[in-house]
Amino acid sequence: MKMCSLGFARSLGFALIPLATCCIVANVLLFFPDGKMNFIQDDHVTKYVWYFMGIGGGGLAMLVPTCVFLGMGKCADSCGTDSCAMCGSAFAALVGLAGSAYCFLISAVALLEGPYCFTLMGWMSPFENDGGKYLFSREKWVECIQPAHIVEWNVTLLSILLGLSTLEFLICFLQLVSGLVNAVCRPCCYKQEYSLNV
């Protein structure tokens, strides 16, 4: 049972590594619409990229649960029991939940508002008050003249961030439940076994 719960946590830790890496990459790409640097130099990118939802929330914040989940075997050995390790993993999972939720919320808001682009009326967010309806009306996307294909660029990367942060949230939630169950229930089971043996 002990090896099973520790192995499960380690597998979740390994799963978070590519997810966090992809979140960071997706957020970085949002700074360079159409793969060009001049837009960020002229401050012609959506304000939401500066919230670092993928870099901070879905990326760096995941280092805490990842390191804790992967190092649980050593923690259990040093503690002499895996109950404290499971408690630690539950707290680390809370950090992961907060980071992934932040990434999801900011990405969702950015997706609903739409990109910041050059239109016939100048630089603006033409779909800001659209309520996300532009996502289902591709004919409106031509309102964004520059950067080229900015709507597709934003929609794709923000959708990726939404999907990745959802997976991160589920992984951290699984470990939170597993950690709490093992930390709370296992000592009770040990006491019950001890009383039966006596």
UniProtKB/TrEMBL annotation:
Alphabetical UniProt keywords: Membrane, Transmembrane, Transmembrane helix
Primary location recorded for the protein, binned into one broad class: membrane
Bilayer topology term: Multi-pass membrane protein
Organism field: Cirrhinus molitorella (mud carp)
InterPro entries named among the record's database cross-references: L6_membrane
Regions crossing the membrane: 12-32, 48-72, 84-112, 157-177
Family the UniProt entry places it in: Belongs to the L6 tetraspanin family.
Keyword Iron: no
The keyword Membrane is assigned to this record: yes
Pfam families registered for this protein in UniProt: L6_membrane
Any single Gene Ontology cellular-component annotation: membrane
Protein name, UniProt field: Transmembrane 4 L6 family member 1
Compartment(s): Membrane
